[in-house]
Design a protein that fits this description.
Immunoglobulin-like; five-stranded mixed β-sheet; EC 7.1.1.9; transmembrane helix; metal-binding; Cytochrome c oxidase subunit 2; translocase
Length: about 350
């Protein structure tokens, strides 16, 4: 119903605009001004083009400089240096072209405004000019695309064997974090196993899952490779860590991954920004529902020694909730009980 009313409203507005135009035309005929090609508004419009160019140009440069620190966040990963450099090279190339074309776009209406004594030049074609404006953009764009492809191939290549694995699972409306145990191998999962006490859907019949453990935040070591294994439980989400220059979609039924090397601890970034409350974060950049705004998880980057100490202190899923071991085979139960005894020592 609303769509129909909006459509009727649009038709009425167009009809009114058309009627105003027709009335203006009839008035011009009555006054005899319809034969006059150029009017005072011709020059006024030409001057307005220049004023608009200057006004918006000054506003653009002022805003870009004033807010630079807000959109150019400090880099905290190795690949972030490469992606930022590609971004600014692309910005420089496209920015120069943008400025030149738009300056000409607004100057030409002023310079070539209608005059009775001016005759237009007939200029049908120029093969040399057409070759130049086709070849130059093709070469420049090919260079940008190839350099971006090389960087992306490095970023999405298989992670180093000793990379620290972290699983990030998105669901409406939060992130769940899972770490593998000492074997650095995550156990299997199955969406059919998801319950109130097993929100990850971990399959504890898989021995690799027995030493997996959850965490309320993402803790990773500085200077060592980290592999994020990303998945979604319900709808499309997107893992975004701006300071790490990391973004990867979390897609239901299609696990994704992203590996990187952090270069600054949380404490170092706090000192750099002079902000004792700073926290790295993961946010969701895919509109996933009403609670989308609440999908945030803290990332804490620490020194490798502090990371190993924190890692050794974590308790597995089963150690935190022994009921998860119910219904498992005797062999798997024995392994789980060994873990429980070790945790109680």
């Amino acid at each position: 119903m609303y769509g129909f009313l909006i459509g009727v409203g649009v038709l009425l507005v167009l009809s009114i605009v058309w009627m105003v135009y027709r009335i203006q035309t009839l008035v011009s005929v009555v006054k005899g001004s319809d034969k006059k090609i150029a009017s005072g508004s011709n020059k006024v419009n030409a001057i307005l083009f220049i004023l608009f160019l200057l006004g918006t140009g000054i506003l653009m440069f002022w805003y870009s400089i004033k807010e630079f620190d807000n959109y150019q966040l400090p880099i905290a990963s190795e690949h972030g240096v490469i992606t930022d450099s590609l971004f600014w090279i692309t910005m420089a190339v496209t920015g120069v072209v943008f400025l030149i074309t738009h300056i000409l776009l607004f100057i030409f209406p002023y310079k070539y405004q209608y005059k009775e004594d001016r005759k237009a030049t007939f200029y049908p074609d120029n093969n040399k000019l057409e070759i130049i404006w086709t070849a130059v953009p093709a070469v420049v764009l090919a260079g940008l695309v190839i350099s971006g492809w090389v960087a992306w191939s490095d970023i999405t290549a298989p992670a180093p064997e000793k990379a620290h694995v972290v699983e990030i699972m998105g669901y409406q409306f939060a992130w769940e974090i899972r770490y593998p145990g000492k074997d650095n191998v995550l156990g299997d999962y199955d969406y059919r196993l998801i319950t109130a006490s097993n929100s990850h859907g971990v399959d504890f019949t898989d021995k690799n899952a027995l030493d997996d453990f959850p965490s309320p935040k993402v803790v990773i070591p500085k200077g060592e490779p980290v592999l994020f294994k990303i998945r979604a439980r319900d709808v499309l989400h997107s893992v975004f860590a701006p300071h790490m220059r990391l973004k990867m979609d979390a897609v239901p039924g299609m696990p994704t991954r992203f590996w990187f090397v952090p270069t600054k601890t949380t404490e170092e970034m706090r000192a750099e920004l002079n902000d004792p409350e700073f926290e790295y974060e993961i946010a969701c950049t895919e509109i996933c529902g009403r609670g989308h705004f609440g999908m945030r998880r803290v990332i804490e980057v620490v020194e490798p020694e502090a990371y190993q100490k924190w890692y050794a202190e974590q308790k597995t899923f089963i150690q935190q909730n022994p009921a998860l071991a119910e219904g498992l085979s005797t062999e798997v139960k024995e392994l789980a009980e060994i873990q429980l005894r070790e945790s109680n020592k």
